[in-house]
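Hi support team,

I submitted a single chain yesterday and got back a structure, but I'm not sure I'm reading the token output correctly. Could someone confirm the output below corresponds to the sequence I sent? I've pasted both exactly as they appear in my results page.

Thanks,
R.
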Amino acid sequence: MFDTSEDAMPLHQVATPGQAINQLQLAHARQLAAEAEKFALVLSFANLTQVLDHAGDRPVLDGSERLKQFGHAGTPRIAEFGVLDVAVALEISEDSAAALISDALDVCYRLPQIWQLVMSCKVRVWQARDLARITAPLSLEQAQAVDAELAETAAGMSPGRLQKLAQALTLQAREPDEIVAERADRLARRGVWFHDSESGVTPMSANLNAADGIFLNTQLERLAASWPPLATPTPCRTGVPRA
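Hi R., thanks for writing in. Yes, this is the structure output for that exact sequence:
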């Protein structure tokens, strides 16, 4: 899961630009693996503190440690003082440690497919934490539904696009009944239409849901980037020329 088996070359032995780039790539891979491993260890610690040492029939005294839910709906409660251990281990504040624990629990339990992408180093930890915060208001079922849609394209999507997609899907999941009905009507009218060609140009129009629209826009940007630029680009309707 965190394979960084290729040996690093001592800096004093790096003698060519190619070797420098190769070692830079290895260092970057090790950094990604270390980030994912640290995130996984935070989760492991949280999962191992779901039971208190003093749990049982004895009464809980004021000031005694209790189980606390750091994450959101669907995540387990853990020992509240554990946040101090994480803070000391990582040399961060108590608030930062609590946020890290919360995000690790949220990503694992509420966004399990994104969690797998993080563990395979296909999505950065900071991106997954951002997705956890965006989807925090959702129920467990809603969050996991958003997770399934995000996971389909997350590995190849830019951070900004992924964030916008998560925001769109989260807003979509929280819509009130009347907006849901309106959206269902709009979804029923989805489609792509090609109109009569004139002067060598074929107009096209489409109605897409938010996720598909963002994905299509991303794919068009990739395609446009692979083509040589036009001498006099003609802006599309949104005012952004593709090529």
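A quick pointer for reading it: Residues 17-47 form the longest helix (31 residues). Let us know if anything else looks off.

Best,
Support desk
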